[in-house]
Amino acid sequence: MRQPLSTDLPFAEGYVLPVDKPLGWTSSDVVRKVKVLLRRLGHRKIKIGHAGTLDPLATGVLLVCIGRATKRAEELQAEQKEYLAGLELGATTPSFDREHPVDRTYPFEHITRESVEEALRGMEGEQWQLPPVYSAKMIDGKRAYEYARRGDEVQMRRALVRIYEMRIEEFEPPRLAIRIRCSKGTYIRSIARDLGERLGSGAYLTSLRRTRSGACSLEDTYSLAEIERILGNRPGVGNDDAPAG
């Protein structure tokens, strides 16, 4: 059930706002938007952050922590996540998703629903996952994607993650949709890459929607349009609050 949202809430005392992050926005864009709206209500120095980054090409549950709730960000980020991921079989990209064009293609006609189910079962459990080079992982004080975009080679460090469950939602080769329950820090793009390799082919992520973060599901979230309407967006301003590009 959605918690109430209104202009007279004691935001400084602590409030977690579950947002359905739209496509093309960064998590920081959403935080900035909420900050602008709260400043218009008189909350000039209030702290705002988020628990669990979503890439611009991903949508879904983003927990925005306001006021004293920012102290809970790490705790909330540590909770289980659930995603609905769309994949394209038979091809790869440098970023493991559709941010970059396809660099290689592979046969996929041999892939069956049964072989996908077997591969998914084999990927469940605790594992050391290799993050994508095009990611926000910090390497010697810089984001990994900064090195990748310059063409520099960088050694990514594997991270311990846990995949609790993966199941097929749609199988229409070369398109595949899977639902994933996993720990914090899991890169769904890396799951797509690894699954392609296990299937003797390639795969990359075409869409990603976070459907749950901890106890919060999509049904509990507010769209940015709802947040603007409730917190009182002023006419004539708004375009400057949208993400650049």
Automatic annotation (TrEMBL):
One Pfam short name: TruB_C_2
Catalysed transformations (reactions): uridine(55) in tRNA = pseudouridine(55) in tRNA
Domain Pseudouridine synthase II N-terminal residues, every copy: 45-188
HAMAP family: TruB_bact (MF_01080)
Protein name in the entry: tRNA pseudouridine synthase B
NCBIfam families, per the entry: TruB
Active site: 55 (nucleophile)
Role: Responsible for synthesis of pseudouridine from uracil-55 in the psi GC loop of transfer RNAs.
The UniProt record lists the keyword Ion transport: no
Source domain of life: Bacteria
Keywords, in A-Z order: Isomerase, tRNA processing
One annotated GO molecular function: tRNA pseudouridine(55) synthase activity
Residue ranges occupied by any tRNA pseudouridylate synthase B C-terminal domain in the UniProt entry: 189-229
Annotated EC: 5.4.99.25
Family: Belongs to the pseudouridine synthase TruB family. Type 1 subfamily.
